[in-house]
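Action item from last week, closing it out:
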Amino acid sequence: SGNQYYQLISFFPEIANEIAFVAENGGWVVSEGKDVFNGELSKDAFTTVVEHLLTRPEVEIIACGKNSAYTLKKYDEAMKTVAEMYYHRLEYVDNFDNLEDIFFKFGLNLSDELIPQVQKALHEAIGDIMVPVHTGNGSIDLIIPGVHKANGLRQLQKLWGIDDSEVVVFGDGGNDIEMLRQAGFSFAMENAGSAVVAAAKYRAGSNNREGVLDVIDKVLKHEAPFNQ
């Protein structure tokens, strides 16, 4: 998931220490409550990215760290309300200076109509440090190159001895593309954009109509395409 680890474990309080999580778009991987992997931006890289983002008044910045996420006190209440829905741990700060944490991702909030041009500009300005990916309505994530959901899954596959051909994944956003290309059974959701559909091997129904659960039923019943 692109979601924060603390957000994800809040969804599964009874079994959080029994299952695995690829959180923060692959920035942090945990299995049975133990760290498997986490990405880490250098302090210099973090500073460079923040300095550039602060020149862009059209974006609101959330710095995603291992202990917490951080955003600016000056942002309006509407933004804070939305941020709190997605970040179980969120601290409000005056600035991003001298934060003591391990950082592996930035979340950016902005207007939908600005996403294509801002994503392109970010790629040109800081793409060698962090990769901008469109993650949904009004949001872009900046991830460390190579530290994506596919890499997070790969860490768990190594741990468990699981081949790509044994993996089923679902995606609908730009942050799912590497994962969809990697997995043996990859499904683009009904609402997915063209780039996501092109990366996937199969299609699933809408998430509003239990599209994922329908595919899981097919896995359990050994129905196509899981009957090969």
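Closing note: The chain has a mean pLDDT of 96.
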